[in-house]
Structures are given as C-alpha cells and as structure tokens.
Amino acid sequence: MTLANKLAEERRARLAAERLLGQKQAELQAANRKLGKHALALSEEIHETRAVVRTVRDENARVKSDLNVAQEKIEQAERRLWHSINTIEDGFAVFDSDSKMITANSAWLSAFDELEAVQPGISYFEILQFATEEGLVDVGDATPAAWRKRMLDRWQSPAPEPVVVRLWNDEYIKLIDQRGSGGDVVCLALRITDSVRYEKKLEAARVLAEAANEAKTSFLANMSHEIRTPMNGIVGMADLLIDMDMSEEQQLYADTIKSSGEALLVIINDVLDFSKIEAGKLVLIEEEFDLERCTHELITLMQTNACEKGIDLIVDFDLFVPRCYIGDPGRIRQVLTNLLGNAVKFTEKGHVILRVTGTPSPEGNGTDLHISIEDTGIGIPAEKVRHIFGEFNQVENAHNRKFEGTGLGLAISQRLVELMGGKVWVESDEGQGSTFGFSITLPAVDAFDIETLKTPEGLNTVLVVHSHRINRAILKRQLEAMKLNVRAVESAAVALAMDRTGIDLILTEYTMPKMDGFELTEALFEASDLTPVMVMSPSPSKTVTEPAHKHVATVLSWPLQREGLLSALQDCADRFDPRVVQPETEKAPEPETKPEQASPPVDVLDDIQVEPLPSEAVTALVSFASKRAAPLAVPRQMRVLAADDNKTNRLVFSKMVKALDIDLQFATNGVEAVSLYENFQPDVVFMDISMPEMDGKEATRRIRVAQIRSGRQVPMIAMTAHAMDGDREDILAAGLDVFLTKPLKKDLIVEQITEACPPEARHPHPDVAVGQS
Ligand code: ADP
User: Fold this and answer.
1) Rg of the Cα trace of the chain?
2) Could you tell me if the CB of 426 is within 6 A of ligand 1?
3) Deepest of 121, 361, 582, 676, by most Cβ within 10 A of its Cβ?
C-alpha cells in the first residue's frame, strides 16, 4: 500500500472516527438534554411530594392535636358527667342484662348505708335482699318476702312502672327504671320526700278548704233559712195589712215594708245562687216545660212595671218554634227575668221586645233556641260591655247611679246559661239601647206541627188594628205564615174610614188611643158592619163590663200565645163560616132582640169565675161540679193541717186562709203533726221542714206509712225557707207532693187547698160552695 493510500485510508478512518465522534457527541448531548429534563421533572416531583408530605404531616399533627383535644373533652365530659351524677341528690345506677350492677352513683349507694357488698357486680335480687334484711325500706303491711317478690316482678317486667318506696328514715324515693338496648337497665331513684310532704300538706289544706266550703254552704243554707223565716213574717203580715182598711200613709208604710222585704229576698237569693254556682253545687233539673207559656207569664208579670213607665213590652215567639222542651224551667225563667227586668229597668221610653227564634240543631238532638231581649234604653258604653258580666259589676256613671241592683244578675245569668251549655251575648249602643241574648240547645218535647198552621178554613183576609208598629208587624207576619191575607192599620179611625170589603175578621187591640177596641166594635156594629171582631186584652176577664162586649167574637189574652190565636181563628172561622149551619144561640144579626146571643165566648168564661157569671156559665159550672163528684147531703167542712214551729208563721198562715171555709188545725212540731194527722184526718197537710223534735221530712214519712195502712192518700205540701239546691229533691223524696218556699204566697196556699178539696167536703171558697149547693 502506498503512503498516499495509507494516508488516504487514515484520513478516511479519521474522518469516519470524527463522524462517529460527532454522532456520539450529538447522542450524548441529546441524552444529556433528556437527562436534564428528567432531572428537572424529578426535582419538581420531589418538590411537590415534599409539599404533600408537609401537608400530610401538618394534617396529621392537626388531627393528632384534635384527637387529643377530643380525648381531653371526652375525659372532661365523662368526669363532669360523673361528677354531676355523683353530686345530684337522686340515685343513678346501671344494670346489665343479667341484672348485675354496672355502676351506681354515690346517692344510689348511700341509700344502702354504705354497705360494702352493694357495689358494681351485685345483683338486683341481692340488693332487694339487703334492703329488707337490713331494714332499709319500710315494707308496710307486706312481709319482706312479698315485698321483694313484688319488686322483683316489677323489675322483670318489660317496662317497669315507677314505684314509690319509703325508707327507714321516713324519706321517700321514687324508682324509675328503664330498659335500654342490649338489655341494660338505667335506674333513677328520685328523692321525693319534699314533694310527698308538700302533697300531704296540700291534701290537708284541701280537706280543710273543703270543710270550710261545706261550712260556708251550710252557713248559707242556714242563713237563708234563718233570714227567710222572719222575712216570711214580715212580708206575709205586710201582705195581709195591705188588704185592710188603712189611711193612705199607713198603706204606704205597709207597701214599703212588703216591697223592701221582697227586695231583700231577691238579694239573698242572688247571693245564694252565686255562691252555689261558684261552689259548683248548682244542679240543673230536667223536666218538661212550656217555653211559650213561660215567656208569656213573664211578660205579663213585667207588664205592670213597664206600663207604669210607659214602655211597650212585646213578645215575638217565632211561629215555627216548638213550644215544649226538656230543661230547667226555673233557671231559664231566672235568666229571662233578669234580662227582661234589666231591660225594663234601664229603659225610660220606647219598647222592650222578647224574641224567641229557633232552628233544629244540626246534631239532631233538639232545637237551637235563640232568645233575645231588645230595649231602647240607656245602652252601655263599649268599654263597659265586658265588665258588666263580672260579679257585683255595674256601669257606674251619672246615668245609672239611680238604678238599684246587686250587680249579680248578669254574672248569674251568664253562668246559668253556660251550665246549660249555651252562650250569652250582648250588643249595645250607648244612649240607643241594648240587646241581650242567649242561645241554648234544648230537646223539644214535640216537633212543631206545621199542619197546625194551615189556614183556618173560611178565613181569607184579616184586618189588624193595632196602634203599635212592631206589634202590627209581628201580627202581620204570624197571620201571613197561616197563609192569610193581612191588612194592618194603626187606629180605629183608619179602620172605620177604610174600604173593608172582603175582610173576614178584624183583630184589634183593646187599649188604643182615642178609640179603643170595644169602641171600634160598637162603631162597626152601629155602621151595620157585622164582621167578627176579636179584641186582644191583657186581662180579658176585666173587659166583660164593657158595653160592646156582647158584640165581640172573642176576647183574646194579650200577649197572644200561638195556640190560643190559632184556635180562636179556627173557632171564629167555624162560627162565622156561612157554609156551617150555626146553632141558634151562636150569633144574631139583631142583638137587641136576642140578648142571650151576646154571651161571652168560652175562653172568656174561663177567666171570669169570680165575676158575676152569665146564667149558662153558672149552669155549666154546676153541672161540671156535679159530674166531678156527687156531694153528700150536708157536705162537711174541709180539714187542713199545718205544721210549723214558728208562731209568726202560724199566724201568717191562718190569716192567709182566713176567708176560706175550712177547719184549720196547727201542729208545732213533727211529732204533733203525726199524732194530729191520726186524730184529725185532714184533707191536706202543709208541712214546715225544719222543726224541733221531729223534722217535716220524718213526719211526712210517718204520715205516708199511716196513709198506706189506711188506704187514704191526701196531698202533702212542703213549706220551707230552705232555698238551696238539692233541698227540693230531698224534700220531694221524703214523700211531699209540692214544694212551696217561704215567704208563702196567699194565692198558692189557697190554690193548694182548693185542689185538695175532696168530693165529700164543702168547697173551701164560700162563693163556689154556694154555687154547688
Ligand atoms: P244589676 O241589674 O243588679 O245592677 P246585673 O248584673 O243584672 O246587675 O247588671 C249589671 C249592670 O249591667 C247593670 O248595673 C247595668 O249597669 C248594666 N246593664 C244590664 N242590663 C242593661 C240594659 N238592658 N241596659 C243598660 N245597662 C244594662
């Protein structure tokens, strides 16, 4: 090989080596770059990992510290809990499902007087054993074994009832045990000694309060009796005095004694009623009563008072409301009397309207009655409306200071209505008037028979002549409900002047200004208008002396009772219906020639027995009396026995029956009454209840036994000053038929005697006795 070749070869080799070196260097550089990049990534990763590790480390440290804190808190809470559990005075223990004690606080353990054996691990049964053997509990009348059994049975029941245990030292604990999940039982032993003692104190106080309340009630009953007895003397004697001939001054004194006595009795009754209601002693009775009659009687009673003040007293008894209900008529009457009395008292002019409406109750158990009393009186300021229902509360202002009253009436009425399950309400405008009302639900005895409202046959058009707008409106509404055409005018003059064609009946008020109902009848008669006229008067019997009475078809008692009005209309329709052939004596075109045709209608005759009677009425009466009983040839005097220990009361009684034709004997106590009954054989017995030696109830029982033996029953009437509830039932239960409260009322006594008159005795009323013979 040549040098040149060699050199060329070397150069080539060197070039190849240089190329290889360059290539390797490039590769190295690339590897270096890759390595650099990787190192960078690695370092970043390391950095990140370090950060994460740092975070985790921090987190761990925090969690650890939190755990420590939590642990400390748990320990603290546990310490506190146990500290609390140990410091509370009540016992606390936990038992496992095998009834072994797991733990107990010191209070629980202290009940065992620090007996060492009583500690965690002891069984419940062993505890009971210790409790009885060491005399730690008072087992009462039971034997220790029986007591343990009872306690163990209770412990083993799924939900043990709390039980009170008395300890040896007169402390009381109440055991409350509760079964938890897993069968553990948590036990509480509450120290209730203080509350047991407090309860005992309360119980003793309650017994004392009840005794005091009973003493108060019996004091009230006695006071009522003690006050009523002398009041009977005062009011009764004043009543008798009033009937005597006296100078005007003496008459005034007697009237004052009587009215003051009666006012005092009202106050006593109010106070008594209120305390009875407050003591929860007022018992409502349930009996059938006629609400319509009751409202009319009250209106009639209040009429005098209202008339004196010039107030119109109006009753509006809805036509579709039943008449008779089951309820306590006495108490309903009391509420009505109070509301009506107030309305009249606080009204100077205008009217007072008593409205009765009702609807069948949705529950179907009776009628929802709404009774309201509307007046045009002084009214009540809005801010006082609630106040007046409070006891002894009155609207005190210059207007009403002059009015008398205890301020108890509304409080009593409200409570009575609430006792009946009802509500009282009031609406009032000061200076304009008030409406007081109440609603109660009462079972109706009979549903109102809509059939009775059918148009009286033969009547189409009625003319009402009444001076009072409201009364005209009420009458119009009632008559229209009977499907009659009604024309209503305000005076006799208008009635006379109008065209009366087509009118079948005229219904007019007796006392109209200028020309009254009878004068209108007379004027119609003179004008040859023979349309039947019915006059409405508060006292029909007093109208018989009216010259025009003979021309009137019927005198109706005002205020009208629906049934009375209906039957009078029907009666009138029958009597004057041209289609019905009338008996000769019913109606005549010429009264002058046939005076007997003017005989007063039947319902008037009912009212006028004490007035000179028309001959046919006397005949009817005599024949009625003779049908009732065939009198003996010489009827004997009626025998009346009255028992009363109080001399004044006996005197009052004898004076009250002075006018009667009777043989009266008195007994001064129950023993005398029984023996007089046997010897005297009275036809009626009046019996006082509180009497020395033997009271009226016992005497009645004995007399009733004697009556059963002899087969001769006579009425026995209680006369008592007892006004408390329950007395009535007690007295009637003793065998008395009727209950009269003192002060006695002459009319009621005379009525009882008259009713008791047997057929073989002379009528106690001398006048009727003459009629009979
Ligand atoms: P009394 O009427 O005995 O004062 P109440 O309890 O019946 O007691 O009435 C309480 C008060 O309510 C009355 O004193 C009177 O101020 C007021 N009041 C009751 N009814 C009416 C009425 N119809 N009009 C105006 N005020 C009345």
Assistant:
1) 50
2) no
3) 676
- Give the C-alpha separation, 329 to 642, whole Å: 29
Quick one: which H or E segment has residue 684? strand 684-688
Beta partners for residue 92, in sequence order: 188
- Tokens representing 261 are 């006595």
Kindly tell me the sign of the dihedral angle through the C-alpha atoms of 225, 227, 233, 236: negative
Which residues of the chain fall short of a pLDDT of 70?
Answer: 114, 217, 221, 224, 391-406, 447-455, 575-634, 722-727, 767-773
The separation between CA 660 and the C-alpha centre of its own chain, rounded to angstroms, equals: 42
Tell me if 439 CB under 6 Å of ligand 1.
no
Indicate whether residue 343 lines ligand 1 (CB < 6 A): yes
Atom of ligand 1 nearest to the CA of 410: 6
Cβ neighbours of 59 (radius 10 Å): 10
Q: 190 is written with which tokens?
A: 């509450």
- CA 232 to CA 744: how far, in whole Å? 7
Task: Give 179 Cα–ligand 1 centroid separation in angstroms.
Answer: 63
CB 338 within 8 A of CB 412: yes
Q: Which atom of ligand 1 is nearest to the CA of 377?
A: 24
Q: 431, exposed or middle or buried, with CB in 10 Å at 0-12, 13-18, 19+?
A: exposed
Tokens of 398: 């210059």
pLDDT of residue 82: 84
pLDDT at position 30 is 92
Q: Is 77 left (phi over 0), alpha (psi -120 to 50) or beta?
A: alpha
For the Cβ of 335 lying below 6 angstroms from any atom of ligand 1, the answer is no
Which numbered atom of ligand 1 lies nearest the CA of 343?
A: 23
Chain centre to alpha carbon of residue 224: 23
**The pLDDT value given to residue 659:** 87
For a ligand 1 pocket test, name from 302, 340, 346, 392 the mutation site with the most ligand atoms within 8 angstroms of its C-beta: 346
Question: For residue 589, is the peptide bond before it cis, meaning its omega torsion is within 30 degrees of 0?
Answer: no
Give nearest CA residue, ligand 1 atom 8. 407
Closest to 289 measured CA to CA, from 333, 353, 341: 333
CA-CA distance, 638 to 755, in Å (whole number)?
11
516 by Cβ neighbours in 10 Å (0-12 / 13-18 / 19+) ranks as buried
Q: How far apart are CA 539 and CA 556, in angstroms?
A: 9
pLDDT confidence of residue 434: 94
For atom 20 of ligand 1, which residue has the closest CA? 342
Question: What are the backbone angles phi and psi of residue 136, rounded to the nearest 5°?
Answer: -80, -20
Q: In this structure, what token pair is assigned to residue 483?
A: 């499907």
CA distance readout (Å), 528 to 312, 428, 461, 496, 509:
33, 50, 19, 12, 21
User: 455: burial class by Cβ within 10 Å (0-12, 13-18, 19+)?
Assistant: middle
Atom of ligand 1 nearest to the CA of 270: 3
pLDDT of residue 743: 79
With beta carbons less than 8 A apart as the criterion, state whether 270 and 409 touch.
yes
The number of residues in the chain equals 773
Span from the CA of 385 to the centroid of ligand 1 (angstroms)? 10
Q: At what angle do helices 647-656 and 746-756 cross, to 10 degrees?
A: 70
Residue with tokens 């005034």: 252
Evaluate: CB of 373 within 6 angstroms of ligand 1: no
How many H-runs (helices) and E-runs (strands) does the chain carry?
21, 23
Half-sphere exposure of 759 (CA within 13 A, CB side): 9
Q: What are phi and psi of 637, to 5 degrees?
A: -75, 150
SS3 helix, strand, coil % of the chain, rounded to 5? Answer: 50, 20, 30
